[in-house]
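Researcher: We're teaching a course module on how sequence relates to structure. For the next exercise, students receive a sequence and then see the predicted structure as tokens, so they can try to spot secondary structure elements on their own. Here is the exercise chain.
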Amino acid sequence: MKRNVYFLVILVFSLFSSITLAQGKRILILGDSLSAGYGIEVEQSWPVLLEQRLSDNHPNFILKNVSISGQTSVEGLSQVDSLLKTHQPSLLVLELGANDGLRGLSISEMKNNLAGIIQTANDQNIEVLLLGMRIPTNYGRRYTQMFHNVYLQLAEEYNTHFIPFMLEPILVETQKDQKDSVKKALIQSDGLHPTAKAQPMIMEHIWKTLNPIIQEF
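Model: And here is the predicted structure for the students to work with:
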């Protein structure tokens, strides 16, 4: 009888430890429409594809995507502390700023907001993967360069994990083949959001940086 009780205690302890370990290895995506599956089926979006990749390669990691279309860095900053405490991730994937740029909002305020998000995560010992963005050149060379520089500066100042341009594979592909058919296949009619066909390319691009980070946990 005592032996059975002993094994039961060990089993319960093991299960509890496994659950605790899994809960301690969460990835939280905080982004905007580029990560919320805008204009496509959510199941086709890169975060869902990433979740499937994690399931195959790192089943002890849980992905939570709290991205909202239209989200700005201001809103992200106001929500981040609550989100981190609720989901308790080991890693925050930060994809914000595009809407700030498209609305022509203050570059310095955007930088301060993103810095505040990163610092909040750092204060809770949460790793950050910052996804850099670019905006269309019709916003002017100076503004577009200042916008992109924000991500470069933040990555250096906070020594955070960093992908300089989240949509790099799409840019490379459309520059390589400038046919309208290629652009239409990868970019939605609004000229801003990636199509369903582009989502696996984005996921693979992010995975190249994300996978080594995960392996360090």
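Model: If you want an answer key for the exercise: The beta strands are 26-31, 62-65, 91-95, 127-131, 161-163. Residues 27-215 form a domain with the Rossmann fold fold (CATH 3.40.50.1110).
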